[in-house]
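Task: complex structure prediction.
Instruction: return structure tokens for all chains below.
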Amino acid sequence: MIRLTQIRKSFGRNEVLKGIDLTVRKGEVVAILGPSGSGKTTLLRCINYLERPSDGEIEIGELRVKCKHPSKQEIHRLRGKSAMVFQQYNLFKHKTAAENVMEGLVVVQKVPKEEARKRSVELLEKVGLGAKLDAYPSQLSGGQQQRVGIARALALNPEVILFDEPTSALDPELVGEVLAVIRKIAKEGITMIIVTHEMNFAQEVANRVVFMDQGAVVEEGAPNELFRSPKEERTRQFLQRMTPEAVYSI
Amino acid sequence: MGTSFDISYVFDYFVKLLPYIRITLTIVGCSLLIGLGIGLLVALPRMYRIPVLQRFSQVYVSFFRGTPILIQLFLFYYGMPEMLKLIHIDVTKVPALYFVIFAYALHTGAFLSESIRGAVGAVDRGQVEAAYAVGMTGYQAFGRIVLPQALGIAIPVFANLVIAVLKDTSLAFSLGIMELTGKSQTLPTMSQHFFEAYLSLALIYFIISIALEKLFFAVERRLLRYEGDRDRDGRAASGRKWLNRRFSGRLELQKEGARP
Amino acid sequence: MKLDPAFIWTAFIELLSAIPTTLEIAGVSVLCGILIGTAVALVRIYRVPVLHPIASAYVTFIRGTPMLTHLLLILFGLPMLIDAVAESLGIPFRSVSIPMIGFVYISFSITEGAYMSEVVRSGMLAVNRGQIEAAYAVGMTTPQALRRIVFPQAFAAALPNLSNSAIGMLHATTLAFAASVVDINAKAQIVAATNWKFFEAYLAAALLFWGLTFLIERLTALLEKRINSYNRGGVA
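Output:
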């Protein structure tokens, strides 16, 4: 289980997260929606400390970290319990697809090389890239790179996978293949938090949807409820702006 | 100067100069090795913004890039013994070669620290984030992800620096070091065929430069093989980008070394 | 022998008299270098037959050899050539009547030309291909397009390298001592030798060069700011 308590984050005098509470149960898929600048990506990046929260508490499994003065070890352990899929993929440029997936296993989890390689091959086959094991990121399309990114996250067997707008940088025709992979692993009961702009996808794949605006959670609930009958005016406006296009684009 | 051009002297001097390549390359090698250490040491405070030290390395880099290497050579040759005398170390018997190497090392270190900073800065920020996200520590991320990529980026600049140092060593003769240039000036005192001597001197430098350039190019191709295939696919844009990168790498020479 | 701080100041004042010579050498070489460099860059970019391989060989050779060797080759080779030609033509002119600084100008310009050609070339390659196409599209000829569209933009792109190259040249003027020209470096040697205070004299010279370098850097920064304010225009 992941529990965020009163997470705050300021850039200078600008408060981008105004005390967020969020609980994600084991195996749950939570989608975070919201207009750009609402703080959803910042919140996600706070969970693995790529962004340093100013205040609050993060709990993943049995690890609890007070955000004010975390030790290096705490940050390190927090990162060890999560994995992230980036908007810009961020595959290690100087390593092949298989090596990218192995890297965390070998370096962080000290898995022997042969075993890591085996695992890596399995996962790449699972995301449909069994033929691209030894390709470098520069030789892969955006969609393929992002699938490697997902395999890399899966390899770590983390408590939670954080998806930061995984399809935003992709050409429209490549979005489908990535969403298909996420959909597939969502069914396997892996805990996921997904920041996304794909409304239909969020509705279909998430157990729960969280709507954020201006650094605060405005509303959360089951996808069907939230999409059909949002309680808050701000949510309704946002969905009206987003859906007409999104509905027909997939 | 009284004598007419005679090609046979060019060959003669060429052969006679060859053994002195060793001293030239010794100066180049030693100053690069020491310079690399200094450069890294000096780059770190600026990359990690360590208060006071950052200021020191800034002044150091500015001074050694802002003054001619020839002046620096004299400064060390005359200044070091006196400075060391103040702390009661007598170096009057230490050969000049050591001072020369030390001066070149400090000079090179200043330029190297800038290239190191540049190359590390050129590695995409997302690479570090991804390393952290898979659970690496800061050292692991630096050693396994940033450094290997920075090395590939830095190679063209480093190659230019090495060649610049090679060319700079031609000034060591002014402190009486018998390297290539120094020897080329004493060889023709009998025959007075100075021009021929300098021609063979230039040829030797040229051959070493070209060899070094080829060597580094091969190393770069190897280190950056992960970037390779797109260029070969004939994508005009990235081909051009690659070309420009080669260029801007070469251009660093202007910045990265005095030309003597 | 003790360090004499007061002498650093004395030396500094004496060195000031050598600044004009140093700046003259640097200025002439950079200007000639830009002219040669632009010509060479154009020859290489447009792949002018016959001239193109010669230009490439020139750049490669100059950049692969120390500047000192260029100076020595000119100092010892050019008089030989001039005298031989003059003799065979029966002209009474002899190379001895050329002042030494003339050889320095020639040699340094040749060196600087090769380095500048790379600066100019990369500046021109940095200009977007679409710019010159747009110039053709409004009916400009190639020289017009180069002069009015490419060069101004290339200059902006090349400015940092241009400045670095000028600083490199400034530092390289210290080689002029090999031609018995009294620049800052040679002057320092004279001042030092007459007083036996080498360290102080060279420290003064170093400070002087440091200051001049700083000046060039500041001027470049100012110029860059000006140019960029044109470039940025009103957008974002």
